[in-house]
Amino acid sequence: MSGLVLKLGPKERVLINGAVIENGDRRSRITVVTSRANILRLRDAIHPDDANTPVRRACYLAQLLLSGEVDTVSIQTRLAGQIQSLAQILRDKESATILARAKEAIEDGNAYTCLKLLRQLLPLEAHLLSVSHQ
């Protein structure tokens, strides 16, 4: 059996297809076998007030798609534009590869994969922003 494996801590919450699921008192492991399920660990969620950098804004848009409570076409268009903007700024080979894959994921309607890829850029963005403020 294959699929996404979620390892949840006690009382950890996860959003699955618009429903908030809370784990019990013990650690658990759940395998999601449905492809294209919209899944977001709430501990990883970015609050709207914290979507204050280019990569964090892109992550937030992907997160909105996972919530299932938005105009999908509009948010996908905004996210594709944000990814394109990031591609013009982050030109190193690794970032370019990540952004190209994120763009493909969003074009394919896979917001989870897009978010997972974009989150890989958060440490680079934090580093670049800290260097520019010195």
Short descriptors:
134 residues, alpha+beta, 2 domains, three-stranded antiparallel sheet, two-stranded antiparallel sheet, 5 helices, 5 strands, 50% helix
Task: Please describe the topology of this protein.
Blueprint: E1 4-8, E2 13-16, E3 19-22, E4 28-32, E5 39-41, H1 54-67, H2 72-89, H3 93-107, H4 111-119, H5 122-132
Antiparallel strand pairs: 1-4, 2-3, 2-5
Helix pairs in contact: 1-2, 1-4, 2-3, 3-4
Describe the overall structure.
The mean pLDDT is about 90. Strands 3-2-5 form a three-stranded antiparallel sheet, with helices on one face. Strands 1-4 form a two-stranded antiparallel sheet. It has helices spanning about 55-65, 70-90, 95-105, 110-120, 120-130; strands spanning about 5-10, 15, 20, 30, 40. It starts with a strand and ends with a helix. It is globular and about 45 Å long. It contains five helices and five strands. By secondary structure, it is an alpha+beta fold. It has two domains: about 5-45, no CATH class; about 45-130. Strand 2 and strand 3 form a beta hairpin.
Give a summary of the structure in a few sentences.
This protein folds into 2 domains: 4-43, no CATH class; 46-132. 50% of the residues lie in helices and 16% in strands. By secondary structure, it is α+β, with helices and mostly antiparallel strands.
